[in-house]
Amino acid sequence: DLDQRQHNFSAGPGALPTEVLEEVRAELPVYPGVGASVMEISHRSPAYSEIHERAASRMRGLLGMGDDWHVLFLQGGASMQFHQVPLNFLPDDGSADYIDTGAWSAKAIKEAEIVGAGRNAGPRVAASSRDDDYTYIPGADAWDLNDGAAYLHFTSNNTIYGTQFAAEPEAAAPLVCDASSDFLSRPLDVDRYGLIYAGAQKNIGPAGVTAVLVRDDFLERRHADLPTMLDYGTHAAKIFNTPPVFAVYLVDKVLGWIEANGGLAGMVERNQGKADALYGAIDASDFYRGTVRPDSRSQMNVCFRLPSEELEARFVKEAKGAGLLALKGHRSVGGVRASIYNAIEPASVTALVDFMGRFEAANG
Ligand code: PLP
Description:
- Catalyzes the reversible conversion of 3-phosphohydroxypyruvate to phosphoserine and of 3-hydroxy-2-oxo-4-phosphonooxybutanoate to phosphohydroxythreonine.
- GO terms for molecular function: O-phospho-L-serine:2-oxoglutarate aminotransferase activity.
- Pyridoxal 5'-phosphate binds at residues 78-79, 104, 159, 178, 201, 241-242.
- Its EC number is 2.6.1.52.
- The structure is a single chain.
- The protein folds into two domains: 25-260, 3-Layer(aba) Sandwich (Aspartate Aminotransferase, domain 2), CATH 3.40.640; 262-363, Aspartate Aminotransferase, domain 1 (Alpha-Beta Complex).
- 37% of the residues lie in helices and 17% in strands.
- It has helices at residues 18-27, 46-63, 77-89, 103-117, 216-219, 232-237, 245-260, 263-283, 309-321, 346-363, and strands at residues 7-8, 69-74, 93-100, 120-128, 152-155, 157-158, 163-164, 175-178, 193-199, 210-215, 289-290, 301-305, 324-325, 336-339.
- Helix 2 (46-63) packs across helix 7 (245-260) and helix 3 (77-89) packs parallel to helix 4 (103-117).
- The chain is globular.
- Bound molecules: pyridoxal-5'-phosphate.
- Pyridoxal-5'-phosphate binds at residues 12, 77-79, 104, 155, 159, 178, 180-181, 199.
């Protein structure tokens, strides 16, 4: 039953809005006007075309993008994009800049190296925070940018370490962004980007679909003779093969939910309130300790430590007993991580902050 749903702080796949799940449940056996479930209809049917087009147009509308932006719903996860981006856009001779702010950035760099090995090209690491366990976003004064780079790749939010760019990097090259874990949580200065990608499963839907937004003039710079499925042009031209129909259907519902909740301005207000409450509780206590530099804090993934690993394990276990799910930090970092994506209700954060107070009183 929906009233059995608990406070879900999962990093990914993350929580979906309860209102959306209710709507989907009502429509699951019979999509209105179709006489079958949305999972049972052709991806060439008018009903599905309408869903697909509406999702794309909602995404453009929320981000303030013009018709020169293609909205693609691809498979293979954000991990496929780590390879597909350089395959399409790393030049035959030259480089692309990468900012290394965590494990996901490092994976993107590795794939660019693989592509570059077959060309006289490669990624240039323009800045990195690896020296301090990725606990901060390098300041712009430490970036070594190449104005002639094909693109500048960055990870806007680092899901594992809990850091986030406060704003877009200033660069001459077009930006390419892995926005998987903060996509549609705030507005973007879209004119600065050539391509934005995000696995849906954190802020905008279920696993199984990756949103890729690519601007037409940037798309035109891609290599020729790419494998058909890995050529962005294939998917920009038309729906080429069977898309993940059910996942796109859900994304469309979540985008409708964002619109109904004030659009991206509404999300900023909602997310700021939740992050302030949680970081406020951490800062007010000597028992809890934030793990990243305050100026680099993520509004999506809040990471903190307790005085011992034993207390951390007990915290996560007792929180689960109190209806607060999935608070264990990533296995490479440890500690506690509360993922507070768009869909997390402010009341869930209040419940977590209350639990933190009780736990500290009993164990501090
Ligand atoms: N990029 C970021 C920032 C992520 O958080 C993740 C997954 O957590 C990925 C990429 C990988 O995404 P996928 O599992 O869709 O390949």
